[in-house]
Structure formats: structure tokens, C-alpha cells
Write a structure and sequence with these properties.
37% of the residues lie in helices and 23% in strands. The protein is α/β, with parallel strands linked by helices. The protein is globular. The termini are far apart.
């Protein structure tokens, strides 16, 4: 089967329109894409896809202020697969959440394709996460009342709006079905999450993360809740997406074997980058 939503040509052709959209995110008032696209800007293909400079982040617990990130610099090139490792509390998930605009840094800046994103309005960040960033988590976050197919379709429903989604529902359903077939769940379209194994739920979450054709995948402990065999299958899938679709992946893991499947490793120790390998 030909998966039109994931072919390299599709990613190349959509890259320009993504950059157009990103330029207008500062003034986004809704999750709908702007109707008027600004003139394309010059983009350096050798520049980092996403970068963070001087990242500081602390959390308050009662009267205590707990520093987590203490001046982290991080960058990833288009098409890279990078693993972020470190002990519990080292700040690796915090860094991933900041990169994905799920949280805001106390200090520092984050740039995506040369555009600062950490200071965007909340609805502009919604657009980024819906259209540019795919996200998968350790505990899947599938909605229990929805079928596998409906869970995968949720980002399209949210991003398109009710009316536009309804008019294009067959195209969206076909795209979601192709993705589920790609991850080996073509026979599980109508099953609810409780009827799936852990590995199947994570594969469904991967399909959901890919439905909008994202430029980057952020994976927070994607194998942390799986047995070794299921975890290996998920990693092979991510590695294949990276190599065959040139999908940029940033993955947090505590497992050195899993981290070894990435192109390089960034190690955090007490809120600082200790080693890049």
C-alpha cells in the first residue's frame, strides 16, 4: 500500500508551506491555519531544526524551589534521531516538554526553523503541536471511549474544526486507516484501547502522532511501559520512520540499549548537558 501521507516527497512539498505558516504564528488567534500566507523566507538547510539556548527551569513545591534545568543548550538537525538520557530528576522530560511547548522556560529561548517559539501565544503553540510536532508518551494517552481509528483521527478533528473535518472526513479516515495499517493495526480499527495490548496501544499512539504529517516527533519514554519485545518493535518502527521518511525524532529514555538505536545521545546530569555522543 502507498502511504501518501508519509512519503519523502510529501514531506519535502509540505516543508515550504510549514515555514509559511510558522511565520504567521505570532498573530494566530485560533487553531485554524491563516488564510493569507506571507512571502516565503530564506531558510538555511544546514541550520538546526530546533534549538534551545540557556534553558533554565525550576518548579515550586510548597516553599521550596527545585531547579531542574540549569542552563541547557541543545540543538538537533533535520532528519536526526537523538536520544536524551539521564537519571530520574535530571531534567530530560522537562527539556522535552519545553521543546514541545507543553511548558515554558524560566529563562532561555527555543527556536524552530529559525523562529522563536517559547514566547508564542498559547493558541499559536496549539498550532505547532497540532501540525508540526508529533508526540508520544509512556502511557499512550488514548481516549478510552474512542476506537483506535477515532483516537488516531483526533488531531485532525481538533486542527480542522468540526465543519471542515466533516467535509473531508473520508480523506481523513483513509489517511488514518493507512497509518494504522502501516503500524500493523489495520485489523484493530474498531477496537477500544482496553482491548489492545500495551505494544498495540503505543503503535496506535504513534499513528496518531503522524496523522498531521509532522516535521518532528517528540517521544517521552516510548518503551518505558512495554516489555522488551514490544519495546524493540516500537523502536524498529521509529528507526524506520527516521530513515525512510527522514522524520526528525527526539526521544527521552532511561534505557541505554534503546538509546543506542538513536544517531546520537545527549546526557543530562543534574540539569546540565554532561556529554553528547
Amino acid at each position: 500500500m502507498t502511504h501518501s501521507v508519509l512519503t519523502p516527497d510529501t514531506h519535502a512539498s509540505r516543508s515550504a508551506s510549514r515555514r509559511h505558516l510558522l511565520q504567521s504564528l505570532q498573530s494566530v488567534d485560533t487553531i485554524e491555519s491563516p488564510q493569507q500566507q506571507p512571502t516565503a523566507v530564506q531558510h538555511d538547510p544546514n541550520a538546526a531544526l530546533i534549538s534551545a539556548t540557556g534553558m533554565y527551569k525550576s518548579y515550586r513545591k510548597g516553599r521550596l524551589i527545585i531547579p531542574v534545568l540549569k542552563g541547557v543548550d541543545f540543538a538537533i538537525q533535520p532528519g536526526e534521531f537523538v536520544a536524551i538520557v539521564g537519571q530520574s530528576g535530571s531534567g530530560k522530560s522537562t527539556l522535552l516538554h519545553l521543546l514541545g511547548t507543553l511548558d515554558e522556560p524560566d529563562a532561555g529561548e527555543i527556536h524552530f526553523e529559525g523562529n522563536r517559539i517559547d514566547n508564542l501565544p498559547s493558541k499559536a503553540k496549539d498550532v505547532l503541536r497540532n501540525k508540526y510536532f508529533g508526540m508520544i508518551f509512556q502511557f499512550y494517552h488514548l481516549l478510552p471511549e474512542l476506537s483506535t481509528l477515532e483516537n488516531v483521527l483526533m488531531p485532525s478533528m481538533i486542527g480542522q474544526g468540526v465543519l471542515r473535518y466533516w467535509w473531508n472526513r473520508r480523506d481523513h479516515a483513509q489517511r488514518a486507516t493507512e497509518l494504522l495499517d502501516m503500524v500493523g493495526l489495520g485489523h484493530r480499527l474498531t477496537h477500544k484501547p482496553k482491548e489492545l495490548s500495551g505494544g498495540e496501544m503505543q503503535r496506535a499512539a504513534i499513528a496518531r502522532a503522524l496523522i498531521s504529517g509532522p516535521q518532528m516527533l517528540l517521544a517521552d519514554e516510548p518503551t518505558g511501559n512495554l516489555d522488551r519485545q514490544s519495546g524493540t518493535e516500537v523502536m524498529r518502527m521509529l528507526r524506520s520512520l527516521n530513515r525512510e521518511q527522514n522524520l526528525t525524532i527526539i526521544m527521552v529514555t532511561h534505557d541505554s540499549t534503546i538509546a543506542g538505536m538513536a544517531d546520537r545521545t545527549v546526557r543530562l546530569v543534574e540539569g546540565l548537558v554532561e556529554r553528547v555522543g
